[in-house]
Amino acid sequence: MRPDRPVRVRAAFALALALAAAALAGCASSPSSMGPRLSPARITQVVSSPDRSIADRENDLRRKPEQMLNFIGVRPGMQVLDLSTGGGYTTELLARAVGPSGVVYAQARPRPADDAAVRPAQAEGAGGTPPQIDPAGAQTARPRTSQDAIAERVRHLQEAGILAAPIIFESRPFEDPLPPELAEAKFDLVTIMFNYHDLGWLAVDRARMNAAVFRALKPGGLFVVADHAGRAGTGITESGTLHRVEESLVRSEIQAAGFQLQDEGFFLRNPADPRDRNTPNPPQPKDEFVLKFVKP
Question: Going by fewer Cβ within 10 Å, which terminus of the chain is more open, N or C?
Fold first, then answer.
């Protein structure tokens, strides 16, 4: 399989591309100056669109996208970066929500030559991109790439006639997630959904990444992080086994980059989760935190 390389994958709407380019070239305004947030009714329309895949709808039961989009405060025309796009679940939702006047960049790290050498000891149940399965049911040696997943989603949006934001795929390291022309005060929103913990076992320089995110956001821009909650005192040490991270560590690292905590969401919390396993026992939802930071 060919290695990942930077690729631009765009929706085939010329007007959408023109509007997105104009927005990127515009002045650095805060999200609150862009117009009203999406209403709950509009968010419900986005999530309940009948063309969305069965897999995404099943994922909705766990991810609660209506509450998430409302918590983020998504606005039409936003310029968005989705870090660690994985299979593109969040990327597509954001593209649908911000609409054709916005743009969504989907980042994934370049795949190492020997990807198996850096995989965590225990696979995460719902994370990353799904493996390809051959007709006999055997798993192939390598999962499909995020680039492939995003290309599939873009094709589907085109074929279904959905007026979504253009999606632009970036295969870049977490510490340098954007090309130089986009690295300074261009974005209204950056997200990393249920993958901040992965930065631990991947040995990512998180301080560099958070500083890059800070630079990329406009004043008033938002950085939204959701992840599986770890036990007090564990930090990010269980990232490759339990796929969890201590919330206080995430807060302190992101605030150290200059961000201020604006809000926290409780719609994915489960205080009954003992947080001592990847999959809770007895079976129940994971305790998950959602944090919204703002660039002053």
Answer: C
